[in-house]
Amino acid sequence: MALNASKNITEGQNGLPSANYKIVSDELLAVVSVVMKSAMYDGISGFGLLTNAACLKVFWTMGFKNNINVSFFAITIADMGCLLSLLWMGICYNPLFADSNITIDSRSVQYLTGGWPKFYFTRVSGMITAYLTFERYLSMTIPLKVKLLLTPRRVTAILVTLYIFTALCVVPIYVPARFTWKWFPSKNMSLISTEFVASKGTINIISNSLNVAFYNGSFVIVVICTAVLILKLDESHAWKKKSTLRSDRQEVSKETRASRRVVFVALLYIVCNLPGSLSCFCMVAFPEFNAGESQQNLFFFYAAFVHIIEAINASCNIFIYQKTSKKFSHAFLQTFTHRPNNCKTKEVKLKYAGRWPVPLKLSIRWN
């Protein structure tokens, strides 16, 4: 990170440098806007939209008789909304678009049309992940009761409620905002821009409170439930070794595979959302670290990094599904390679003592 060197730096509020010193220079921020906010936003988002579209198709093919498929389908929809919003943000930051003869101030308009929609879908994805880890914990602890209580229809109702509840909590940020014509002397023309009726301080309090409540609330739940799930997986693995009943071992293996898949998804979420969770505390602890404040360049730089990490999280779940779910892999092959459903494959091991030092595997295929 390029820093502005200065020997005489006075400290501002909470120990941060004063307003006459910028940790991230304007020149560096201009480079970041082109490289990270334009190229990387659109590149990662485009890739993620393809992977999530494939996931939606596969889950639709698999059906929704299984609760975990319903939850993963809901997460995929939220991830697609997040990536679409980020794609639009990248377009708005692109100089070829922003500095063209369009009648909107794209960098200002994207705050309401891209930034907050992405905030909404990211929080929905986090809350569904928190619910999913908690539901998996209950399935490992009281599996019979969970199967009776959490039917696919009830799970769908819970997920729809999470979508609606999160949307209602994001609505207040749009109440004091509006689009209006604003004169730009540099372009010698009026452009549609974003204007806030309420004071900036009130808006910052609302946005920071929502950030802390949703981002960190769901993040903490995911961390706790993931840790407990890992412990439960270890216990079930030890119990499986001691069990003598084949049916019990098969049932435990089925629940274990589903829980392991959820654990990997949750771990990816934790790693990719930790920087964003830390930024929420920084915004509260250091008021200078915010848009429109003395260290807004540092805030924009870090926000771009957080957006990219979150986009990676929203784009890579398909690889976890492929590695941890045989049903997903088979459905993926059937969907995108047009493999017939009545075609099955079976592996038979033939061992010849004294002839083959390694067991020979023959693949037998029939219709």
UniProtKB/TrEMBL annotation:
Transmembrane regions: 72-96, 116-134, 155-175, 213-233, 262-286, 298-320
Keyword Cytoplasm: no
Gene3D superfamilies: Rhodopsin 7-helix transmembrane proteins
Gene Ontology MF terms: G protein-coupled receptor activity
PANTHER family cross-referenced by the UniProt entry: FMRFAMIDE RECEPTOR, FMRFAMIDE RECEPTOR-RELATED
Top-level division of the source organism's lineage: Eukaryota
Any Pfam family: 7tm_1
Protein name per its UniProtKB record: Short-wave-sensitive opsin 1
InterPro entries, per database record: GPCR-Ligand_Int (IPR052954), GPCR_Rhodpsn (IPR000276), GPCR_Rhodpsn_7TM (IPR017452)
Organism: Biomphalaria pfeifferi
